[in-house]
Specification:
The chain is an alpha/beta fold. It folds into three domains: 130 residues, Response regulator (Rossmann fold); 163 residues, Rossmann fold, CATH 3.40.50.300; 127 residues, Helicase, Ruva Protein, domain 3, CATH 1.10.8.60. Helix content is 43%, strand content 14%. The strands form five sheets. Strands 2-1-3-4-5 form a five-stranded parallel sheet, sandwiched between helices. The chain has a five-stranded parallel sheet with strand order 7-10-13-6-14. It has a two-stranded antiparallel sheet with strand order 8-9. α4 links the parallel β4 and β5. The chain is globular. The protein binds adenosine-5'-triphosphate. Adenosine-5'-triphosphate (ATP) binds next to α7 and α15. The site of adenosine-5'-triphosphate (ATP) has 17 residues, from α7 and α15. It comes from Subsaximicrobium wynnwilliamsii.
Length: 447
């Protein structure tokens, strides 16, 4: 990242300092926000995804020990460890400087500063961040897997360990948690990375398609077989075969798969010779390992074969601040894709994001933000810009305090909003109520 693409927050209780720094930085960086109250830091950080915070050490002139600066420094680093904090103080004190650096400050400047010095300090941090890359797993190729949470860091550690081995991997996790991304990342970081990565959604294949798709066929093997066709096992030879939705295949399909995996050979339909195959197998499913262990549903011997190592991808709700980081990532991504400017998030927008259940996990978040960017008329995203797809919502049943009529109304509203791509005005019109009445109902039903 370059200085002109960076976002900077300046916090100082001296309005003159804020004005001076705003004037200095305005033309040099992408966004500069100034504020005189440190209590606003954490909220502002959630709204803007700053790269650097320039923070005063002493507020209100009450205590000059620098403790307050260090207190806020710790809060910032706890919420967003990747953000660099540059501390400034009017009371140059080498002990304090050393202490703040030990506590995680990136740099330390003494007031009155020279403009060039503060610019150099910020530039240096931005360049360092660029070298370290964005907040994502550092992997080969262009796989971007965002995740700072402990739960995702555990996934990344495991991924780096297993990727270079040839072990068969079973990836578990709810819909939309990123299983596909992880499978691709394992391949991209394996010794097979220059060979094919072939994905098959086996859960969607009928009994007849299952065999022809996976094992291939010879011309004339069945009525529609007008020419020879390679199966996906053969196409993945030397590389990785990724079987998605493995938990949904029938017992018969499981038996066929097991034979191939045991013999490491496939016989295309209509062929009389088998072909040796050398693949690394990755499977994924949203069925829990407990349900998979039910022998009426899934063969134990097949589980053992596909599951040398299993990895569970946590749902979004267990990833703490990852949600905000992902939100900023998707907002920047779609703003660029749709040629829009920079967006900031209002407190109500963030609150609505945080309150939502996200049963569709990262995919649901991604689609909701893409919709918000497409529909937004202004740079500040407000709660009403955020609408959730009815597809991801569990069908609403009347709760204890709710009548069936309430549940019916709630479902109707969700369906109409979805149909109108989140457009509140159109939805209100279709429902035959005013915009304000629709907002009242959205609020009432916590939508
Ligand atoms: N950590 C992440 N960082 C960035 N993007 C992500 C992350 N996790 C998921 N995504 C994005 O969310 C979407 C859904 O991810 P993906 O298809 O990998 O999920 P999945 O678990 O395989 O879903 P399903 O269970 O429906 O097959 C994709 O567009 C993916 O790029």
């Amino acid at each position: 990242m370059l200085l002109q693409n960076s976002k900077i927050l300046v916090i100082d209780d001296d309005e003159d300092v804020l004005i001076a720094l705003r004037l200095l930085l305005k033309s040099k960086v992408k966004e500069v926000v100034t504020n005189n109250n440190p209590n606003n830091i954490l909220n502002l950080m959630q709204q803007h995804a700053f790269d650097v915070v320039v923070l005063d050490m002493n507020f209100n002139g009450l205590v000059n020990t620098g403790n307050e600066g260090i207190f806020w420094l710790n809060k910032i680093k706890k919420q967003s460890p990747e953000v660099d904090v540059i501390l400034i103080t009017a009371y140059g004190d080498i002990d304090l400087a050393i202490r703040s650096l030990k506590e995680g400050a990136a740099d330390f400047l003494v007031k009155p500063w020279q403009n060039e010095k503060i610019l150099d300090a910020i530039r240096e941090r931005i360049e360092k961040q660029k070298k370290q890359g964005p907040k994502k797993l550092h992997l080969n190729a262009d796989t971007k897997i965002i995740g700072d949470s402990e739960a995702m860091q555990d996934v990344f550690v495991k991924l780096k360990k297993v990727a270079p081995t040839d072990a068969n991997i079973l990836i578990l996790g709810e819909n939309g948690t990123g299983k596909d991304l992880i499978a691709k990342a394992i391949h991209d970081n394996s010794l097979r990375k220059h060979k094919p990565f072939v994905k098959v959604d086996v859960g969607a294949l009928t009994e007849t398609l299952f065999e022809s798709e996976l094992f291939g066929y010879k011309k004339g093997a069945f009525t529609d077989a007008r020419e020879d066709r390679k199966g996906r096992f053969e196409a993945a030879n030397g590389g990785t075969l990724f079987l998605d939705e493995i938990g949904n295949i029938s017992l018969r399909q499981q038996a066929r798969l097991l034979t191939v995996l045991q013999n490491r050979q496939v016989t295309p339909l209509g062929a009389n010779q088998s072909i040796s195959i050398d693949i690394r197998l990755i499977c994924a499913t949203n069925v829990s390992i407990r349900d998979l262990a039910d022998e009426g549903r899934f063969r134990k011997d097949l589980i053992y074969r596909i599951n040398t190592v299993d990895m569970t991808i946590p749902p979004l709700r267990e990833r703490g601040t990852d949600m905000t980081i992902l939100a900023h990532y998707f907002i920047d991504f779609y703003a660029e894709k749709y040629g829009k400017g920079n967006f900031s998030l209002s407190a109500s927008f963030i609150q609505k994001l945080k309150k939502h259940h996200f049963s569709g996990n990262v995919r649901e978040l991604q689609y909701a933000l893409e919709r918000a960017i497409i529909m937004a008329d202004q740079d500040l995203l407000e709660a009403e810009d955020l609408t959730f797809s009815a597809i991801e919502q569990p069908q609403v049943r009347a709760t204890e305090n709710e009548t069936n009529l309430d549940a019916l109304e709630k479902n109707t509203i969700l369906n109409v909003i979805e149909k109108n791509n989140g457009n509140i005005s159109k939805s209100a019109k279709e429902l035959g109520i005013t915009r304000a009445a629709l907002y009242r109902r959205l609020h009432k039903y916590d939508l």
